[in-house]
Amino acid sequence: MNVTIRKIGNSEGIIIPKELLQKRGLHAGDNVAIVEDGEDLCIKKVTGSPEEYERKLKIARERMKKYEVALRELAK
């Protein structure tokens, strides 16, 4: 599905088609996270509070940094 980045006020954004929002159970006001995965961007629904999500993300980043060498070897 292709969408165009549009000017929205002083920002830029995309309009997610209604059918896709319904399929994924997303509604106006839901919190989502945009995650970089290599060259891709992934949009994920945030469950729980945004603060809890950020706390978990911080822990994950710390662990990935701590075990970077091992994770790179496992990825081969």
Describe this entry's structure for a reader.
The protein has helices at residues 18-24, 50-66, 68-75, and strands at 6-8, 11-13, 32-37, 40-45. It is extended, with a radius of gyration of 16 Å. It has a single domain (6-75), classed as Ribbon (Pemi-like Protein 1, Chain: D), CATH 2.10.260. Helix content is 42%, strand content 24%. The protein has 76 residues and is an alpha+beta fold. The chain contains three helices and four strands; from the N terminus they run E-E-H-E-E-H-H.
List the helices and strands and how they pair.
Elements: E1 6-8, E2 11-13, H1 18-24, E3 32-37, E4 40-45, H2 50-66, H3 68-75
CATH architecture designation:
Ribbon
Q: What gyration radius follows from the Cα positions, in whole Å?
A: 16 Å
The unreliable regions are none
- Number of individual domains: 1
Q: Give helix and strand order, one letter per element, not per position.
A: EEHEEHH
Main sheet: strand order:
1-2
Number of strands: 4
Shape: extended
Q: Could you report the average pLDDT, rounded to the nearest whole number?
A: 90
Portion in helices:
40-55%
The CATH class name reads Mainly Beta
Q: Determine the strand fraction and express it as a percent band.
A: 15-25%
Q: Compute the number of helices.
A: 3
- The CATH topology is Pemi-like Protein 1, Chain: D
Q: Give the helix/strand class.
A: alpha+beta
The largest sheet, given as strand count, sense and whether it forms a barrel, is: 2 strands, antiparallel
N-to-C span: 31 Å
